[in-house]
């Protein structure tokens, strides 16, 4: 059996590591740790992980906020299956997995990664009636989430929903879905990706009662950007209790968002070009043919 250790950060994708028996790990906030955990409650060099007599041990390194299991402060603990605790204020959990299950997960991860790199390019941008629905369907499927929205607009005021997945139209009522509105507001304002797990504890979303009532276990909201220009947002979430948005899920989401943004930008350029061509075609004929040649020369020189 292999041990997988997962750290659940409130506003980042989960950090998960399948432990290698030949390796000794350092954990902390400093960048030269084997496992870097960027949470203010984590010390620069917080803990160590090592195997002894076929057991994995998590050893506190005299950190400021310690190691906690079952509300008890410990210097060291054995990573038994289904163990959960806190490193500083960061929850962690342990799973013991068979090699067969790990191989299946790795194969699925490889498939999702490969699909995410080509699925958008395989969609036909000429089929604009279906393209936005295909975009958000790919996001939900490949990130292992359940629901998704594709919003287009260059500001929060102009943002409109163009496609949904896993949602009924009635669920888009602000009172029914206000937790996600908070995420959308922040992502569109900051123009940075937002991730939250167990949103009842998230500092930005916890004040919205409907977030807790809707039992949103994990969510991500990613702005669609072309340079500095905001084109829209992708929102996706899961209501499955204990849902973990892992680093690979988030990386796939970012990859898809980049591809979708590029395609939407290309579509917008094509639409603008078509409008310009139509406008020129509709101009009175003499405006194209009756301009004196010297005026054309002057305009070029000027």
Describe the structure.
The chain is α+β, with helices and mostly antiparallel strands. It folds into 2 domains: 3-97, Tumour Suppressor Smad4, CATH 2.60.200; 103-274, GAF domain (Beta-Lactamase, 2-Layer Sandwich), CATH 3.30.450.40. The chain has 7 helices and 16 strands. It has helices at residues 99-122, 128-142, 178-190, 209-213, 247-281, 286-289, 293-301; strands at 2-7, 15-18, 25-28, 35-36, 47-52, 55-60, 67-69, 72-74, 76-78, 84-87, 90-97, 147-152, 160-165, 194-197, 218-226, 229-238. The strands form 3 sheets. The protein has a 6-stranded antiparallel beta sheet with strand order 2-1-11-10-7-8. Strands 4-3-5-6-9 form a 5-stranded mixed beta sheet, with no helix packed on it. The longest helix has 35 residues, at 247-281. The N and C termini lie far apart (77 Å). It comes from Pleionea mediterranea. InterPro entries: FHA_dom, GAF, GAF-like_dom_sf, SMAD_FHA_dom_sf. It holds the Pfam family GAF.
Strand order of the largest sheet: 2-1-11-10-7-8
Q: What's the architecture of the largest domain in CATH terms?
A: 2-Layer Sandwich
CATH topology of the largest domain: Beta-Lactamase
CATH superfamily of the largest domain: GAF domain
Overall number of domains? 2
Element order, helices and strands? EEEEEEEEEEEHHEEHEHEEHHH
Helix content: 25-40%
Structural class: alpha+beta
Return residue spans where pLDDT drops below 50 for at least 5 consecutive residues: 202-213, 283-302
- What overall geometry do the principal axes of the alpha carbons give? elongated
Mean of pLDDT: 80
């Amino acid at each position: 059996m292999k041990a997988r250790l997962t750290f659940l950060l409130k506003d980042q994708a989960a950090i998960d590591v399948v432990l290698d028996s030949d390796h000794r790990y350092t954990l902390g906030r400093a960048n030269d740790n084997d496992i870097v955990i960027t949470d203010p409650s984590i010390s620069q060099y917080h803990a160590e992980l090592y195997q002894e007599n076929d057991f994995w041990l998590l050893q506190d390194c005299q950190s400021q906020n310690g190691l906690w299991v079952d509300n008890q402060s410990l210097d060291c603990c054995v990573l038994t299956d289904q163990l959960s605790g806190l490193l500083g204020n960061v929850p962690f959990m342990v799973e013991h997995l068979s090699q067969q299950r790990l191989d299946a997960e790795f194969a699925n991860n490889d498939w999702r990664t490969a699909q995410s790199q080509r699925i958008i390019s395989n969609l036909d941008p000429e089929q604009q009636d279906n393209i936005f629905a295909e975009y958000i369907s790919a996001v939900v499927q490949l990130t292992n989430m359940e629901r998704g929205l594709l919003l287009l607009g260059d500001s929060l005021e102009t943002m409109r929903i163009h496609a949904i997945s896993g949602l009924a139209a009635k669920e888009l009522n602000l009172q029914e879905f206000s937790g996600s509105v908070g995420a959308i507001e922040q992502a569109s304002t900051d123009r940075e990706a937002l991730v939250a797990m167990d949103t009842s504890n998230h500092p930005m979303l916890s004040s919205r009662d409907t977030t807790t009532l809707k039992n949103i276990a994990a969510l991500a909201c990613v702005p669609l950007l072309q340079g500095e220009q905001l084109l829209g947002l992708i929102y996706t979430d899961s209501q499955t209790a204990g849902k973990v948005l892992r680093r690979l899920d988030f990386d796939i989401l970012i990859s898809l968002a980049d591809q979708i943004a590029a395609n939407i930008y290309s579509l917008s350029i094509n639409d603008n070009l078509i409008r310009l061509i139509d406008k020129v075609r509709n101009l009175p004929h003499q405006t194209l043919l009756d301009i004196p040649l010297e005026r054309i020369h002057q305009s070029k020189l000027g």
